[in-house]
Fold 3-deoxy-D-manno-octulosonic acid transferase.
Amino acid sequence: MLELLYTALLYLIQPLIWIRLWVRGRKAPAYRKRWGERYGFYRRPLKPGGIMLHSVSVGETLAAIPLVRALRHRYPDLPITVTTMTPTGSERVQSAFGNDVQHVYLPYDLPDALNRFLNKIDPKLVLIMETELWPNLIAALHKRHIPLVIANARLSARSAAGYAKLGKFVRTLLRRITLIAAQNEEDGERFVALGAKNNQVTVTGSLKFDISVTPQLAAKAVTLRSQWAPHRPVWIATSTHDGEESIVIAAHQALLHQFPNLLLILVPRHPERFPDAINLVRQAGLSYITRSSGEVPSASTQVVVGDTMGELMLLYGIADLAFVGGSLVERGGHNPLEAAAHAIPVLMGPHTFNFKDICARLDQASGLITITDAATLAKEVSSLLTDADYRNFYGRHAVEVLYQNQGALQCLLQLLEPYLPPKTH
């Protein structure tokens, strides 16, 4: 009964979804494009019979990059279809893989749209990153006997409590899933408590630890640093949200009194915030350029606004330390491990519930510094820039946490082998 009510409601709210897409399209015009894909209609042919991977957020897409690369290496003859829900996710997939994978938007969870989609790509295996439990998608895969794996699965106590209210509906949903590869024991136990069977759940660790700085990326970062700031300190503030850019800018203004040649790289989380961030920098009276302009910072440039996609790991490589946003406002924070991979100190605000386990490990190992406002941010950045030993201490411990917790990728790849043809490599 709940499944029918859910589906009926989803059909009823479609006009509201169209309005929302149109409104979001004011700031991000890409939201007004490719609507057909959201209902299972495609303008170009798609290769069937491969692996489908869905990641709803930019963070999940980034976490999936090593997995997709490993799958392409092991199964080069299988087409890989990566689905997302947003234009930003689409751009990240394009920048990471180009034409090596197929990208489309995942259709809304409507039975007819999903059937058109699955008829088109006919996957051998479906991977969903973290915790995207779409009832009709799960039911359709179960009916077609297509294995479904929740990779890098996590379930917060709050989300588990919400799902628990749905009782049998959620239990039925979970038991249609082939495998749940949980990030840690707590996540696995929550899935079991909701109704998943013990033999459905395996703890693999977090894929977010399985990132690395390639020699090519490191060399590119060294070159860019020599062009941008060969003799000046650089700090970066990434994945910032509304309310955080002003805090970062205030901290930077305070720091300029002590470090007159300090350069800030400011990277908002969402492309639609690029103009707002630029306006805030301009209103503060700071000299700036945008990354998309292709300009090289002059000696008088105080801020570079990172308004391009897919360059975050490169920009981290230029910086001496990093503030990771979504954490000074109640967004739950973003992935600190991308900065840690470069062995630079990581600063975050107190709101890190999206990365609770990762931040706890970094904090316990002295690989994370918690700040609360512009004053504490400026104070910690000042301490790190003044004392190279202090800076190296935090950077070294951050990257050690990354190395010590790697291995989830290989574990997951082994778990996927029974559902795929014999690997080629």
Observations:
- The chain has a mean pLDDT of 95.
- Residues 92 and 309 are 7 Å apart (CA to CA).
